[in-house]
TrEMBL record:
Name of protein: Anticodon-binding domain-containing protein
Domain Anticodon-binding: 321-398
InterPro entries: aa-tRNA-synth_II/BPL/LPL (IPR045864), Anticodon-bd (IPR004154), Anticodon-bd_dom_sf (IPR036621), Gly-tRNA_synthase/POLG2 (IPR027031)
Pfam family, one: HGTP_anticodon
Origin species: Batillaria attramentaria
Family annotation (PANTHER family): DNA POLYMERASE SUBUNIT GAMMA-2, MITOCHONDRIAL, GLYCYL-TRNA SYNTHETASE/DNA POLYMERASE SUBUNIT GAMMA-2
Superkingdom to which the source organism belongs: Eukaryota
């Protein structure tokens, strides 16, 4: 039925408003729909910001594109019958025929590759035709992989697996062929360092190379970044060298030169792609953050409370960076002070959890904040009013 520790982990995420899943059946193809609560939504935004900052804002000559998730594609005569269709897309990918014409069909994209590729020429113009140049995109894509639960691979205990759709992160880097090997190694280091900097157990994130295709110039390679989940090792990002074949294909299709300049020489650039998804990022960092801490028993009947569940999320990823707790006999006055402190922190861009009217004990508040992944709890009391003394409790150490 699954590892009990994994089940407790999934129950915690559902109870604390991170994520829940719902199974759906699409003509025998089993998928999941994911619902993100308040904490999960904040975690999504924080991860997306960190990826965007690292891949777009901090990189030179990097431009972004955004395209609709729906695309109109030509339909052949045989394409009107899904049972006779020769493409590999599952029937549920095709939504409807536009109008009353059979000349086009609306489909959901399954990747961002076409969207990013369409932005190459405009990005090259913005860099005055100089290589290298990068194009980045974030968007929802349909999961075209037809997974079945009866194939011996039970996804029920795997976090955010086999979803009907997901939010993809893609960066396409167009590099001159003379430096493509060094550039590939550069992006591999950048991506592996990005994954590890937010992880409590960075050693669980590793990379492995795969040779995918040979060309006249050499070898097009692919490297997969993996994470050691409790249910096994899964890939979480792919960095691939596609060579110049895709650029040449776009040039033939459009009739417009796709060459770029490097040291005053014209080249067809080689394409390096870094692909991952928001769901994979969330799965890694929530799994990595989960802890079960054994508590020292104070009484003989404390067996039911001998452990505490903690999400040791990186402060930059945590839904809330700070929580405020109020205690003491003059709680009304202390709460007014808490509101002022929360306002000042929010004005500095700090996400604050300040529940009003909370009558729980401090121990229950600490337990809640640990399960939400809040790094620090600021405790305000009567002493704060009298002498300006506050206590700050650390999630990771439990010390005040």
């Amino acid at each position: 039925m699954g590892d009990p520790r994994v089940l407790r982990f999934l129950q915690l995420l559902a109870r604390r408003g991170f994520v829940q899943d719902q199974a759906v059946d699409l003509g025998g193809v089993h998928k999941k729909l994911f619902r993100f609560g308040a904490q999960g939504t904040l975690l999504q935004r924080n991860i997306t910001k960190q990826w965007w900052d690292a891949m777009v804002l901090q990189q030179p000559n990097t431009f972004c594109v955004e395209c609709p998730a729906l695309t109109a594609v030509p339909v052949t005569t045989r394409g009107t019958d899904d049972s006779q269709s020769t493409d590999d897309s599952p029937p549920s990918l095709k939504l409807a025929v536009l109008g009353h014409s059979l000349s086009s069909q609306t489909v959901l994209r399954s990747s961002l590759i076409s969207d990013c590729s369409s932005g190459y020429l405009s990005s090259l113009q913005l860099s005055n035709g100089q290589l290298p140049v990068s194009v980045a995109s974030i968007g929802q894509c349909y999961n075209a992989r037809q997974g079945h639960f009866d194939d011996g691979d039970d996804d029920s205990s795997k976090l955010l697996k086999n979803g009907l759709y997901g939010t993809h992160f893609l960066l396409q880097h167009y590099a001159p062929p003379v430096s493509v090997a060094q550039t590939f190694d550069f992006w591999l280091r950048i991506r592996l360092r990005w994954w590890r900097q937010f992880a409590s157990n960075p050693s669980k994130l590793n990379s492995s190379s795969v040779i995918t295709e040979s060309t006249e110039e050499g070898l097009n390679g692919k490297t997969v970044i993996t994470y050691d989940f409790p249910w096994g090792t899964d890939p979480v990002e792919t960095i691939s060298n596609q060579g110049d074949s895709q650029v040449r294909a776009m040039e033939r299709e459009t009739g417009v030169s796709h060459q770029g300049l490097y040291h005053q020489k014209a080249f067809h650039p080689h394409l390096i792609e870094c692909q991952t998804s928001l769901e994979q990022c969330i799965s890694v960092y929530l799994t990595d953050a989960f802890r079960e801490r054994q508590l020292k028993k104070q009484t003989a009947n404390q067996k039911a409370q001998d452990s505490r569940l903690v999400l040791q999320l990186h402060p930059l990823l945590s839904p809330y960076q700070v929580a405020l707790s109020v205690t003491g006999s003059r709680s009304r006055e202390v709460r007014v002070l808490a509101e002022h402190i929360a306002k000042d922190l929010r004005s500095e861009g700090v996400c604050v959890l300040n529940p009003t009217g909370n009558s729980d004990s401090m121990e229950l508040q600490y337990r809640r904040n640990d399960e939400l992944g809040v790094p620090y709890t600021i405790v305000l009391s009567d002493q704060t009013l009298d002498g300006g003394v506050i206590n700050i409790r650390s999630r990771d150490t439990g010390l005040k």
